[in-house]
Each structure stands twice: as C-alpha cells, then as structure tokens.
C-alpha cells in the first residue's frame, strides 16, 4: 500500500510539474512522471493479484464522512492494474500526439493537468471503500474527463459533444447518489463492508433490488450499456485520440467495476433483475456491433464497438449472476473471470485501436473512411499494430481477445445441470448471439482496417501521410505485443483473474474451482503458439519457393477494365451494405437522392445516413419529454431576484416546520 | 496410429474431394473429366510457379495466404476424423474451431481488399456477410448438443449424442442438413457461390483471390478444399455410429465423405446459383434448423428433469 501511495504522489507531483514547464516539454514531463508512478502502483497490484493478499488502510476524515477505509485487495488491484497500465500508454502516446497543438495558443497546460487528475481519480476509485468518498472521487473523474473531451472546444461539434457527455455523467451521478443514499439510510453507514454485512443476507430484498437497479443504471451510463450508450459515439470522436483511448479502454471499465462492486456488496439481486441485466448486455453487444459496422467515422465505429465489448463483458457478468442465483459457484467464477479477462484485454486492444485511429487522423486530418485508404505502405508500424488490434478485438486466436470470449462461452455451456428451462433458453440465446456478434465484428473490423490501411488512397490529400513519431508507435506496438502475449499465455490471464472473481462471488477463494479450465486453456495456448509457428513456416516456405523467381509487378486485375482509379475501390459504406440490408429492420437508412432527371442528367447527389434506432426510439423521446416538462416549469426560474429570495424563505420556513413537528 | 491416419487424411482428402466434385460434374455433363488427383497436380504446379503481384499491395498481401492456411490446418487438428477422434481434443474445441476459421477468413478478406480492386471488395463484403449469418446456427446446434450429451468437445459430443434418448436420430438428421448448408456457405459451393462462373461480378470466393498467384494461390486453393473437407468430416463423424470399432468407423467415415463429395458434385450439376439477395434467407436456414434442434433438446431435457 505504501508503494501505491508513493505512485499516487509521483502522479500528483507530475501534475504540478507539468504546469510549470514550457509548453513543448509538458508532454515529456507527463510521460516521464507517469511511467515511474504507474510502475510503483503496478507492483503492489501484481503482488496482490498473484498472492491474493489485501492491503488495508483507513483514516478519519472530517464530519460528515467519518472513517474512510481504503483497501487494495485483488479485486481492486485488478482494476488499478488496468488503469495504471492504461495511463502509462496514454501519457506516452499523448506526449507525441499533443505536439501538433503546440504553439497554437491551445490550453495544453490545462489538458495535461486534467489528464493526470483523471489518472489519479481513476486509480483511487477502486480502492475506496466508502460510498461518500467514492462519489466525490467519481465526480472528480467525470469532471476532469469532461475538460479533456472539450480540448478543441472552438469546434462546435466538440463542445456540443462535451456538454452532452457532461449531462449524461451527471444523470449517472444522480442515480448513483440516490442508490447509495437508499443503502446508507438502511445500513446507517457508508462503509462498503457495513453495507455488505447488512445486505448480503438478503433480508432487505426489495431495497437492495431497487438500489441495485439505480446503481446499475448509474454505472451503466458510465460503462455504456444499452440504452444509455449514446454518449460514447459522441464524446469519443470529439476528444483527442489518447483521451478517447483512455476513456474507452479504461474509464468506462470503472462502470463495470461499479456493477461488480454492487454485486459484491449487495449480493446477487432477484432473478428477474439478473435476467434483464443479461438481456440488456446481449442487446448492447448486438446493437453496438450493428452500429459499428455502419459508421463512416473511424472513432465513432470504435466507440460503438466499445458498446459491443461492454455488452460482452456484461454477458459474462450476467451469466455469473445467474450462476450465483442458481447456486452454481463454478459458473459464477467462470463468468466473472471471463468478464474480467475480457475487460483487461479490451483495455489493451481498444486503446491500441484508438491510438491507431489518432495516428491516422494526425497525419491525414480526416476520420472519414471514404477518404482514407492505402496507409499501410506509408505507416507500416501503425498499420501492423492496428491489424493486430483488429484481429484481437474480433476475438480470434492466437490473440488475447479469444481467451476472454472463450471463457464466457464456456461458462454458458456450464449452465447445464442447473435446473430451469428459462436459464437454458437464456444461455443458448446468448451463446448464439455472442457467436453472431463475434462474426459481425469480423465484418466490422475487416472493413475498418482494410478501408483505412489497405488498397490505394481514396483521396489525394492523404498520399503525403508519413509514419508518426516513435512516442506514438511505441505504445501501440507494445500493446499489440501484449495482445499476442495474452493469446499464448492464457493461463496467466486466468491466474490473475481468479482471486478478483472469487472476491466478487463473495465465496472464500476456492482453489481449483477453475481447474476444469486449465486443460482447455493449455491446449489453446499450444494451438495459438502452433498457429504463429505454422504461419512463419508456411511464409518461409513461400519465400524459399519464390527465391529464384523474381516477382512480376503489374496493376491490379480490373476484370478487363483498363483505366482504374482509386475511386472505384469498395468503400466502407459499400463494404457493409449487404449486411446492413439484411438487418434493415433495426438499421434504417435515410437516403437522399437528387438530380437524376431527364435523358442526360448532369449533376447528381446521393447520400445516406444510418440511423441509430436506439437513439431515435429511446434517447431522443426521453430528451424531448424532459425538455417539454421543464419548459412547463420554467416559470419558477424567472430571473427575478425577489422571487428567488421568496423561495429561500419558503424553504427555511418549511424546514423549520419539519424540524419542529417532524 | 490414429494421428498418422488423420494427418494423411488432412493432406490427401482435400484434393480427392475437389477431384471427385469435378469428376462428377464432368460425367454428369457428358464429358470424361480429369483424373481424381488432378487438383494435386494443379497444386504442385502452382508451387513451382513465380508470382505476379499488384502495384497496390502491401506486405499484408504476402503474409495473408500463409496465415490463412496455417489457421485452417490448426482447425483441422480439432476435427474428429478417423475413429471419431481428433488429433487434439479439449472441452470447448468447437468454439476454437470456428474462431480459427474466422481468423483465416479475416486474413483473406483483408488481403483481397489490399489489391484495391472493386470486384475483390465485392467478394470480401459478401464473404463476411454470409459467414456472419451462418455462425449463430452452428453455435446453437453445438450448444444444444453439448447440453443434451453433457459433453463439451467435438469428440465426446459426437459420441454422446448417440446415447441421448429417443430423439437422437432426428437430431442427427436435422444437424446434418444444417451442417451441410454451412458446408456450402463456408466452402463457397453452389447455390451460395459458383466457383466456376466466368463472371467476376457473381463470385464470392474466387473473386477474392483474383490477384493471387504462384504458391500463394496454391495455399489458398488447398486451404479452401481443406475447409470443405473439415466440415464434410464433421458431418461424416456425426453419422458414424459410436462404438463400432476403429476400422469399420474409418470405412464409414471415408465412404461418407465420398458420398458428400459426390452429392456436392451432383448439386452443382443440377442447380444454378441463387440470386445474391436470396442467399441470406438460404443461410438463415441453418439457424432455423438449429432452433428446431434446440426445441427438441429442450423437450428431451424437460423430460429428464
């Protein structure tokens, strides 16, 4: 725990230092401070994850908070590890990425300051075991990330996205506050251990269900569960790329942390809550990947894919909750460890993909797939990293993404032996839909990778793009290497997820409960390694066969057409069109066509937009309803000082009456 | 012994299957047709050739065929063949089987997009769409089988399904149809894809490899044939009854794979390719069959409860 605080202190020191140095050195200072700080934080975490030890600390704070307990147990350590690693990658990449804004009168100083604030707030959240302090730090996290999102606030769409994000985060905070207040009121303490003692027994079933729904909704907004996901595709594209990578890879995981924490504290909720949660998770995964495969903006597509992956993590949690509810500790352990492993993996490859998208944006100044293409030759390192990240996020072996998904699949197969047809139906439908999601994500990411990096440039402006500096390629390549490492070392992943999963299920750590997995994972590791080796062998064979015969270079076969341009290539939109047509009911297309009239039409315009059904059906009407209600109430706030004073007096009188007679 | 036979099968059967299909089509069309091992000669000829590459391509294009074939070979290790036993078998291997094939597909699609050809883009886009639609069906079938038999690997599921109550015959029959549609989809055969059409616009698999040549093309051809063989052998080991001994099992397996090849050849002789817009419905039949299978399994399990 000491090392943990030394790390935090280094972070804070860096924040102060970064304000004082010259603009061009701020990035470097941040990266140099985050690296030792992050490592100092990582060491106790890894130790705790491997040994299962917990490092407690508590101190007295002023009234009304009282005693504040901090605890670095494996469950917290797992998240702290994800955050610390994410912060290291983010700050190194950010130091390169922010160079383009130097000397342009931008608030670079504030940016780095808030970046470190966000790091610290996120690092502290998992170890805090007091609801009130938790909320305060949660708010610091939301606010500092808001300032990071609106870095380019002179652009209207960025500012709008920032405000939208701020509002969503505060809806989330309101829900969280309400939920925690309900709990604190019953238990009479804000400490999670006290709450756990009161609610674990299941004596207050209705209260804890209500609180669980409120809190899950609040945390769900942060995580990006359907139908509360709509801030992700707005805020991620608006933020600078290292921030979107951090937010998508790390910050939304704290929403998942919150949900897992609630399961740990409140015990498993009623059965119908578990089923609805699983259903929502499946829907999130589906909707996320459907929308992702329709986007033309790389970062929007990646943001929707985060919704998908949060959904997959949610499926793991849902299965685990059902396992707990049906008293099957094995299923619960598997579900949670699958969810945790996928979460760790997602923080790696999603960060990597956002960083890749940022590198592309930095060099080409566009995020639109229809203008990109052929960048692999100009940016081979970014391209390689992006390819590996795409393979990993599709959950393909030999990458880490497969391991998490495999364990989640496996946990569903394990539901047999538990009574109940409804469970069987839930498990098989999520099993099949998860497979479907996986297959569509292959579509989504072949589309993203190949329209950006493969083929030829679709626009002349991007032909001058060159590789990004090493400060940006290095984190990407390291993350890509970690993705491969996770794929060939699945048992290590399971090892570090076991203790946290055991803590969430509330059971004493049962060694060997996941032993059933060890054999499959071992064979998977062998096959993954074999796949890499075999690829290398076949490639070597190919090189050997071709050594004496020089390859003839010619144009791409145009099927007889002699004069191709890069504009005739398949674009992102055309690539996903057949699929979007199949899922027409959920993905409606708005088409506008004009100009094709007469025998010899001159100018013609055609454009289309894919509508996010969930946004138009759920979020918009909700927003419009709220606005409608609030405008009816706007007479209260009429700008007249006397009226406001009057409200104050009424409030005072009412509270006096309440104190006297209540 | 089993492993050696499996390895030999993995090496030779893909060629034999494509040879058989070709032969059946020729005979049906009134021609004599090439020899059964002609695909093998084609393959070895390709291995000796030099290659022509496009100006547009990047290194990904060179690596992709090797990676794709490697993935298919790894997947082959998981499929039960001789005596219903696979080279490697573990709980949940069918999940990895699917994902290995998906890895191969990913690499080929990306390399096809690398050429910058609109035709290859078209093929890639169709390939990923149709195979995405085939996926849930396969998982429902395997998941249902896993529950009713209480096993989690290809090998044990195919053994266990025979002792899973009175409905097992029906389940096997339905799943054979489902898997066969999957074979047609994934293997790129009629009526989903026409491997021998003369028009690039109407192809799926063949159009994706227009710009590959030399050993790369050889790898891709062998990989595609291997994929057909793998799914065919899933069906064949599903029909091989459990516990009839090694040699009879081997014979039944071999004969059934042959029957499937002849049947594919027959289908391709009498059918035309479907319209592209109708293929999704055809592919969704797998899921429809799978759901029927799932309901039967539910009923069986409900009885047992």
What does this entry look like structurally?
The complex is a heterodimer of chains A (662) and B (305). Helices cover 71% and strands 4% of the residues of chain A. In chain A, the strands form two sheets. A two-stranded antiparallel ribbon of chain A has the order 1-2. A two-stranded antiparallel sheet of chain A has the order 4-5. Chain A has three domains: 378 residues, no CATH class; 39 residues, no CATH class; 47 residues, no CATH class. In chain A, helix 1 packs antiparallel against helix 4. Chain A has 23 helices and five strands. With 662 residues, chain A is mostly helical. The model of chain B has no long low-confidence stretch (mean pLDDT 87). The termini of chain B are far apart. Helices cover 71% and strands 1% of the residues of chain B. Chain B is globular. Chain B has one domain. With 305 residues, chain B is mainly alpha-helical. Chain B is built from eleven helices and one strand. At the A-B interface, helix 15, helix 16, helix 17, helix 20 and strand 3 of A face strand 1, helix 3, helix 4, helix 5 and helix 9 of B.
Instruction: Give the count of helical stretches of chain A.
Output: 23
Biggest sheet layout of chain A? 2 strands, antiparallel
Q: Mean pLDDT of chain B, rounded to whole units? A: 87
The largest β sheet of chain B comes out as: none
Oligomeric state of the chains present here: heterodimer
Instruction: Please provide the count of β strands of chain A.
Output: 5
C-alpha geometry of chain B: globular
Secondary-structure element order of chain A, as H and E? HHEEHHHHHHHHHHHHHHHHHHEHEEHH
